[in-house]
Amino acid sequence: MNALLSTAISGLVLMFVGLFVKNRQSIKYFAIAALLVAFVANLFDVAWIIHHKQGYTAYEHMITVSLFTTVFNAVILGSTLVYYLLSGSEFEKVGENVAEYFALQFFILAGIMLATSFSNLLILFLAIEIMSIPQYILAGSDKHNLKSNEASLKYFLMGSFSTGILLMGIVLIYGGSGSFDLEHLGIGAMALSPLTLVGILLMVFAMSFKVSAAPFHFWTPDVYDGSPTVFTAFMATVVKAGGFVAFIRLFQIAFKGGIVSPQWELVLEVITAATLIIGNITAVYQQSVKRMLSYSSIAQAGFMLFALLSFNMRAEQGILLYAAAYSLATIGAFSVLLKMNDYTFDGFNGLARKEPLLAFGMTICLFSLAGIPLTAGFFAKYFVLAAAVQQGGMLWLVIIAIVCAAISVYYYFKVIIAMYFKAGDPEVATPSNAYKTMLVITVALVILLGIFPNLLLKWL
Amino acid sequence: MLTVLLILIPLLAGVITFGLKGAGPKILALLSSIATLGVALVALFQFRANPAATHVSAQWIPQLKANFEVGLDGMAAMLCLLTALAFVLVFVSIFSREYERSASFYGLMLLSQAGLTGVFVAADAMLFYVFWELALIPVYFLCSMWGGERRIPVTFKFFVYTFIGSLFMLVGIIYLYLHAGSFGYQDFIKGAAGLSASDQNWLFWLFFVAFAIKMPIFPLHTWQPDTYEQSPTPVTMILSGVMVKMGLFGVLRWLLPVLPHAAAGWADLVMILSIIGIVYASCIAIVQSDLKRMIAYSSIAHIGLMSAAIFAHNETSLQGVMVQMFNHGINIIGLWIIVDVIEQRLGIRNMKELGGIASKAPKIAIFLVVIALANVALPLTNGFIGEFLMFSGVFQVNVWFMAVAGLGIILSAVYMLNMIQRVIFGESNAVTSNVTDLTAGETFSLTLIVLLIVYLGVYPKPLLELVQGSSQAVLAAFGR
């Protein structure tokens, strides 16, 4: 709650800061300060919940703040902080309206905070919209770039469609159960009426769109590719993790009774398999690292979907760790990409000789995305897969995931091969010392979480 | 604590090495490897006096009940010693050489040493898996950065192969963990005992594929000759001397005792594959003209015999395998050192272009002959005792298996003696007449190897005693 209010107010304030503060660097520092305030505010919530050993509800049971909510918020705010420190200076290169970009991102954060704590379908709808609309604008923020305009329009149209479908799903579930309240939907306690089942399926489709799961992923590469890279990094990480947590909350709470409709589960299993296969295989054929990372984000969504399919504690731990590992690694990888002039694989040739630190940072981030042990990505993948194995009946899907993880090694390592083993003279912006320090810290966090995932999990 | 030091010394030294310049990396690498060897020797004595004292356990990820649990048994102590010794031999023999970006080279070598040692001492499946990968990744970079012309695709193939194997193993580990309740070695054994026969059967393959790729066993061997050929020779020494033992060790530690019934059920199939590998690889070794490729194929044949003997699972064969793991490691590193010397001096590895080295560089010739004969398992060399035990173990299971596998001995004599003939005897030519003899470092390494070959060939008792407990522990899982 505190974090939600804090981010929302900071967003509003930032909109006006742009009017009075002309020094863009100061705006960045203001945003970082606001983020720290939100982080501290969130810590108060964590402390309160730990002290009282229970969460609380607010606004007529519209919002439920649990320990998971607050820990997840901390991960989101922490990732955003890393993102600002690594890439905050790049905002200036996109356009004039730096303060507005930060403000929009704070609104997105507020949407995510809402998504981590909703307990009513209407709040879910609000949360999703608050997360989405600023993204449509950010995608088109490079106004003079046609690709950016196209990305924005595409994203907006597709996003609106999916919102419509989400709303339709909510309506049907309301029709079937007579309630908007997540706790009282009762869809896990009895056999489903056809109306509710259709409602659930529509919601699955809409949410799959939001988290770019196949076959609802087709917008992702174009939008990620067309958007200014610095905003792609945010969309593909923090926002996506937020979408997932809404997805998971929805089903884990609504299906609490334990009866899960096989039709619904099968659809989600097929979506997971398709996401893994399509995401990974198409990533192999990409010529640009940015597009490869876009497809890889689809592939990673496939892994996160495992947490959705498993109704156990391990899934909750898994998605938390996944959100942290994936966000940190992708933010790190994108921050290196931002320094490059040429986004093709060949553009990375010989980077290890020219900028060894950038190449090293990129390598560790890619290791983490590929799920190599001793990086955070390994335990993230481990937890979600273990949750699925524990759930039972999904071993075929786990095997597909394993094969896909092996495929992912191919395209992630293409970058590493280019950086370390091929000769070239890449055009790269000279990184500042502050940036270098921050990259080292990010890499250290990725490794630290890879050796001691407990550092994060112990809070749950 | 000594067990932890075995991992910690190369790990820390490796990390520090990345930041050093000039001759710093190679000096630190050598010092660290000597220190590790010292610790390995002390740990060996500690194990003999009180095995429990080598055991260290600390909490790691409580949510998963995964612990940092390491300890030694006879086999682990022997393999730690082999690893430590191998790195000293490698670092001594290449000491006079300059490597481009030497900080990274030595740093990665040391990290892989830490990973390898970790694999041999881990008593927790999650820890085992993490070390398994830690050993692999530095080697990938070493081969890709300092290897031959085709190094990038070749090493990538090697990496993908082993990574896929590891992932299958990971699924197996997850599944077993859910039945065992923790990653502890003993819990794994107990947990697996409660599984149905069909579960055990497919779990067996998840683990076996990972280990078989690493060894490698026919038909999963295709990455190996290319990788050995393209890797820089110091890395090939580690790959063939120590890293293939990870696969054998995995089967002995994590497969046979954990899934004994499935292992017994599939034993014939695995033995047949292994024996096909022996004959097939030996035949190919005969027609090779590249020295590195020939030794690579000979290694497949030797590993094939070890794998067949493992699945014969009787005490004779298991003891044979364990001592042979050590002896094969020593011998093959010796062979690689000589190949490396020849390649560095003359710039060629093609046997057709070699010849007459004996007259110009007698030391090279003497060492090559002794080590090659040990590799053929001549009596009174260290290779003999292991091969003898393995063959008699296989013989107890199936005479035909032994008879066909026995062809490997004859074939190995053919290619090894042929190699000696073509490389060191005969007429010297324009290239080989310029060869210079061994440097002090190389002589030291090879002398150490030859002393071990003769000592263990004449008096293998200490080695056999060391691994006796381990082989009995494996057999206990079969109720024998």
Distance between the termini of chain B: 33 Å
Count the strands of chain A?
2
List the helices and strands of chain A in order.
HHEEHHHHHHHHHHHHHHHHH
Oligomer: heterodimer
Rg calc of chain A = 21 Å
User: Which of globular, elongated, flat, extended, rod-shaped describes the shape of chain A?
Assistant: globular
Please tell me the overall pLDDT of chain B: 87
Measured by DSSP, the beta-strand proportion of chain B falls in: under 5%
Total number of beta strands of chain B: 2
GO cellular component, one term (chain B): membrane
Subcellular location (chain B): Endomembrane system; Membrane
Family (chain B): Belongs to the complex I subunit 4 family.
Membrane topology (chain B): Multi-pass membrane protein
Written overview of the protein:
The complex is a heterodimer of chains A (460) and B (480). By secondary structure, chain A is mostly helical. Chain A has one domain (1-458). Chain A is 76% helix and 1% strand. Chain A contains 19 helices and two strands. Chain A has a two-stranded antiparallel sheet. In chain A, helix 2 (24-52) runs parallel beside helix 5. The longest helix of chain A has 32 residues, at 146-177. In chain A, 60% of the residues are buried. Chain B has 480 residues and is mainly α. Chain B has a domain at 1-146. Chain B has 19 helices and two strands. Chain B has helices spanning 2-17, 24-49, 74-93, 102-121, 125-146, 151-180, 185-193, 197-214, 223-230, 233-255, 260-287, 291-311, 315-346, 357-360, 362-375, 382-397, 399-424, 440-458, 461-477; strands spanning 56-61, 66-70. In chain B, a hairpin with a 4-residue loop joins strand 1 and strand 2 (66-70). The interface between A and B is medium-sized, with 31 and 28 residues. Chain B: Residues 122-407 form the NADH:quinone oxidoreductase/Mrp antiporter transmembrane domain. Chain B: It is a multi-pass membrane protein. Chain B: Keywords: Membrane, Transmembrane, Transmembrane helix. Chain B: One of its GO terms (biological process) is ATP synthesis coupled electron transport. Chain B: Its main location: membrane.
